[in-house]
């Protein structure tokens, strides 16, 4: 609303038309990567492609995340493995590629959980030290947040471990 009052209706419509044309041009050129700016948007685009049964396009999205964010790409690794295993008649080499992707995703999650546990320990140690000096700080909310993040990572870890078992089985 602020933009409309500042720029005026006609200027805003011109901006929208330019945006719409960029989107249509990118879609027609099959280059939707132009439109995404963050790993989360890429992940969402990849999941969209996976959902509409375009695994190769999805894998391109996941590959870009893996390349650009190697320490924060566990979900892209998981979904890439899912996409390459989508065909029941996959080769042993493809199965092993998926297995390696899943193992990498698992190790990234375990590392994140280790970092959370270390930071939790550091906060408790700092709080204890301050308490002994007569300064009280509350760590309950931080502890609750760390606990919830670890619970989410545990859910992802369980899914990845189940997928690892499936990649090793011949079915």
Global Rg = 22 Å
Q: Give the beta-strand count.
A: 0
Q: Which regions have little confidence, pLDDT < 50, spanning 5+ residues?
A: none
Main beta-sheet strand count, sense and barrel state: none
Number of helices: 7
**β-strand amount:** under 5%
Topology order in helix (H) and strand (E) letters: HHHHHHH
- Fraction in helix: over 70%
Describe, in plain words, how this protein is organized in 3D.
The termini are far apart. The longest helix has 41 residues, at 92-132. The chain has helices at residues 2-7, 9-28, 39-51, 55-68, 74-84, 92-132, 140-168. The chain is flat, with a radius of gyration of 22 Å. It is built from seven helices and no strands. 20% of the residues are buried. With 171 residues, it is mainly α. Helix 3 (39-51) packs parallel to helix 5 (74-84), helix 5 packs antiparallel against helix 6 (92-132) and helix 6 runs antiparallel to helix 7 (140-168).
Note the main attributes of this structure.
flat; mainly alpha; single chain; 7 helices
SSE map:
Elements: H1 2-7, H2 9-28, H3 39-51, H4 55-68, H5 74-84, H6 92-132, H7 140-168
Helix pairs in contact: 3-4, 3-5, 4-5, 5-6, 6-7
Task: Give a short synopsis of this structure.
The protein has about 170 residues and is mainly α. It is about 80% helix and about 0% strand. The N and C termini lie far apart (about 55 Å).
